């Protein structure tokens, strides 16, 4: 049974980025190919355009149809390891090469203040940023390198990177395997892939809204403190009595 028989997919981009085309073309090497793509997307800056979410979903479906002969649990293990290994390499790239790139005085994009801003971002949202960022295309590529550039604690980064790898790589693959059993899903894979991407953006949207709310609350508190301080410093008006 081919993946084409099980699904009806209209590519969301060039054919060579279509998950169905990738897996069908690689044949018996499909799992290795998917693992290498995940590795590149999670660790190499050039891999930011690769279809991680949709590829994982289709891989889960392919494992249940027999196109990928490796058992589903083995598929999940391989993909989790590939995603985590990509993060390790990406962190190393950022740690070693990042400072030299960002310290160039004539660079408009790679500025030192961006590194400092990133460091503050990780100090505040580091653990959540690593886990949630894994589910967002492009973000999962650059956030890994930026963690190395910002000198985020390696043990802390690798711990939460591993958690994110399990939740993302195994989670989306299992989701594809489970939902792929339904005829509606098989016949509307493109719609399901779009939903996967949209759902992956929800955690980040929540974080952004929460950050804006905290910023407004902080500005309101600062205004109140300023007003209270101004009132406290205001001179007390005394009533002068006429001299007898």
From TrEMBL:
<feature type="transmembrane region" description="Helical">
    <location>
        <begin position="29"/>
        <end position="50"/>
    </location>
</feature>
<dbReference type="GO" id="GO:0005886">
    <property type="term" value="C:plasma membrane"/>
</dbReference>
<feature type="transmembrane region" description="Helical">
    <location>
        <begin position="71"/>
        <end position="93"/>
    </location>
</feature>
<protein>
    <submittedName>
        <fullName>Membrane-associated protein</fullName>
    </submittedName>
</protein>
<feature type="domain" description="VTT">
    <location>
        <begin position="51"/>
        <end position="177"/>
    </location>
</feature>
<keyword id="KW-1003">Cell membrane</keyword>
<feature type="transmembrane region" description="Helical">
    <location>
        <begin position="157"/>
        <end position="179"/>
    </location>
</feature>
<keyword id="KW-0812">Transmembrane</keyword>
<keyword id="KW-0472">Membrane</keyword>
<dbReference type="Pfam" id="PF09335">
    <property type="entry name" value="VTT_dom"/>
</dbReference>
<feature type="transmembrane region" description="Helical">
    <location>
        <begin position="191"/>
        <end position="209"/>
    </location>
</feature>
<dbReference type="InterPro" id="IPR032818">
    <property type="entry name" value="DedA-like"/>
</dbReference>
<dbReference type="InterPro" id="IPR032816">
    <property type="entry name" value="VTT_dom"/>
</dbReference>
<keyword id="KW-1133">Transmembrane helix</keyword>
<comment type="similarity">
    <text>Belongs to the DedA family.</text>
</comment>
<feature type="transmembrane region" description="Helical">
    <location>
        <begin position="129"/>
        <end position="150"/>
    </location>
</feature>
